[in-house]
Every structure is written in structure tokens, then in C-alpha cells.
Amino acid sequence: MQTTTDLAQKVQWALDPTHSSVGFRVKHMMMTTVKGTFDTFTVNVETEDEDFVHGKISFTADINSVNTKNEGRDQHLRGADFFDAEKYPEMKFVATRMEDVDHDGSYIMYGDLTIRDITKEVKLDVEYGGVLTDPWGNQRAGFTLHGKINRKDWNLNWNVALEAGGLLVGEEVKIEAEIELIKQQVEA
Q: In degrees to the nearest 10, what's the CA dihedral of 106, 45, 113, 19?
């Protein structure tokens, strides 16, 4: 007798990079917020049918693609004071579990974030937009993710004390992402 699990189909999902973004926000001089993105990244997702809760989800960003719209600052972020892109060219995230918060599209995703060869568990709030069919017949899934980390947990320690007190760069980094996936292949 086949169970529901036996009948499930493996589905591969591809990132739609033109409708996806991965960004961060951090306080500057304790009074304003600097925003940045990673312009080159991949997301790999494999699900059984359309069950993202139990899916295999991973993310990789090219550190050299960090973009804060200020080339001097971006070079500093790529350097040894922060990401050290020459030695550690990628940032990686692998989901370990996902919890349904309210049975209405809100989830908490836990996973291992690796920066500078340091891996720590992080928690991300996920809003699932559902699966829709676009005008060309492609099935798409959409997600909005938010979270926060302390950059010092990954040895991103550089800072400058301000004359009036406080620090030039905040320790808390807010993470935000919009991810749109396109259903690729189905395996029985």
C-alpha cells in the first residue's frame, strides 16, 4: 500500500533573480540606517509537492557583490575588516527546520548561516505568498523574509568610537529578502 509520502513528487524550484532581492540594514553613527544588497546570489529549493515546510532550502551570496551604493564603503566591506572576500568569497545559509506560526502563511525558518567560515544558527520570519500561475503558465512561489543578527558573532568586529559616544557602525544587522521561485521539474 502506498502512503501519502510515497505518492509525493520531488519538485525543484529555480530563483527568479529579476523578482528577488537580498538586503541588509545597519545603523550608521547610531542615528541613520545604511542599506545594502548582495546583487549576486543563488537559492536552491527542493520540495515534496509544494510543501516548503519540509523542503531542502539553501542560499549562497557572492561577497564581492555587496552593494551599498558607495564604492569606498563596499571595498571596505569586502576587505579584511569585515567580510574578507578574498579569503571567504561566499556567505551561505542552509535551512534546518521551519515552523508554521499561524497556519495562514507565517513561518519561522531556522538555519545555519556561515560567514567567514563561522557557522551560527539564525532565525528568520517568513511570509509565504503562496503559489500562483503566471500569464505564461509557470508556477511561481513567493516569500518575504526578515531577521536580525549581531555581526560580531561572525567576527565582523571593525568599528570606530564616536567622539560624542557610541559607535560608527551598529552591531545589529537586519536582514530582509524577497524571493520568487519558479517550479522547474517534477520527479515521481
A: -70
